[in-house]
Amino acid sequence: MVSRVIPVDPFDLVIFGGTGDLARRKILPGLYRRYCSGQMEDNSRIIGAARSEHETAEFRQMIADAIAEFDPKSGSPEQLEGFLERLEYVQVDALGEAGWKELAALMGENRVRAFYFSVAPSLFGALAERLHAHGIADSETRIVVEKPFGKDLASAKALNAALAEHFDESQIYRIDHYLGKETVQNLMAVRFGNMLFEPLWNSQYIDHIQITVAETVGVDGRGEYYDRSGAMRDMVQNHLMQLLCLTAMEPPAKFDPDAVRDEKLKVIRALNAVPLEDVVRGQYLADGKKPGYLEHAGDPDSKTESFIALRVEVSNWRWAGTPFYMRTGKRLRARSSEIAVVFKETPHSIFGEEAGRHRNVLTIRLQPNEGMDLFVTIKEPGPGGMRLVDVPLDMTFAEALGPEAEDVPDAYERLIMDVIRGNQTLFMRGDEVEAAWAWADPLIASWENRGDKPVPYETGSTGPEEALAMMHREGRRWRDIRA
Asked: Where, in this chain's numbering, is substrate bound (predicted)?
């Protein structure tokens, strides 16, 4: 299978925060891979902008070092040299006037202009204002903003309002890298491109759905920041919410940005309020080698969660009575992100009790090994009667698609190219963000008002025992967390 690379129109991409960690680790190495694939026209340019003082030559060397560190296998020395020639740098003060005339002078004519706000959200409004004040932005300009999109509904509305003063909603690209993952998009292809699944995609046939995002790392080095957000604000309200929406949404009329996002919005608005008995919050303990969450947060009385598990219901005809279980946490057993669609048992087993209980499970793996498994029940080979066993029909991309799978763009590559194309399908709309906060805020307020403190859990475990009990009381169990 040969993947097609379709070049994008010539562009100027300005990365505010161009010397920051995200730019060095993800954005610029990703753009380099797109350059090596032939997707960027030769006259496209990437301009780093930040407060620090650098010459363009220094900036190019900084990015060369970053590519060597984070993506050493891509490209040739000639390709690297060609990519670096397309880089420029300008020192800009987001809150002042310094550097804006110089930035304006670098802008080319008759090409797409995109601006990546890889900075703190508090600077979004100031950047948007100055882009217009200095005549750098026009009606075709696109801006990319990173999460967090606020810390509650009020701040999300204020952030949306600040951007809306200077840019139309069609120009704003709120990036969530989970939506750029190949498997997440394949979820839509599997659902809406195959007759096999969509007729079964409802409460009549599905027992429950599990969404897991597990991490082995702690909050080392950013404990003070993380302690102001926690797993609910940092992961559930955005990443896991988006995965839930794509799993639960109705088929859109067409694969169109607003049609897809309209259906996602309907899911968020259909979510029931979550009672506290359907929530488990935890904090990881020290393991003898590494400090625990409280040490990383620098607050022995912290009530912020590093783990959360929730039971969520979508109140509509398709999903009535089918629970969605979501969990995410730090310092868990393995790094693993997956969506598991657990189908109901057959209404009657002709094989007797000795055959055991069996269910079909469709597993969509987001990381580390992107792909899908469909577990089906078959007879165990050999004599001795009708013994049943569940086996996976495995579609690991690297195996099913061969060497081409290794060249599939990562999330940031794909999403940035979508910005240049003007395709907002995989980006969040302002009303989506606000609806998600409107659902999350009352739940956060309920445990804060009650003064609940998260329960401790062991580093390297699957999370608190209370999360297991939440499933067991309904006769279900979490899937194992494994790499």
From this structure: 177, 181, 215, 234, 330
Q: Same structural domain for residues 112 and 186?
A: no
Q: Which residues are catalytic?
A: 239
The domain of 228 spans: 179-472
Dihedrals φ, ψ of 275, to 5°? -70, 155
| Domain identity same for 370 and 274 | yes
Cα distances from 362 to residues 264, 378, 419, in angstroms, run: 21, 16, 31
288 among the known binding-site residues? no
Can you tell me the mean pLDDT for 137-147?
90
Check whether 21 is labelled as a binding-site residue.
Answer: yes
Q: 245 with 123, same domain? A: no
Write a three-state SS string for 291-322. Answer: CCHHHHHCCCCCCCCCEEEEEEEECCCCCCCC
Task: Report whether pLDDT(177) > 90.
Answer: no
pLDDT band of 397, cuts 50, 70, 90: low
Is 18 assigned to a binding site? Answer: yes
Same domain, 288 and 397: yes
Check whether residue 183 and residue 114 sit in a common domain: no
Confidence (pTM): 0.91
Give the count of domains, the chain: 2
Using only C-alpha atoms, what is the Rg of the chain?
24
pLDDT bracket for residue 355 (50, 70, 90): low
d(CA 446, CA 369): 37
Going by pLDDT thresholds of 50, 70 and 90, the confidence category of residue 3 is: low
Residue 216, annotated ligand binder?
A: no
Instruction: Say if residue 142 is in the same domain as residue 192.
Output: no
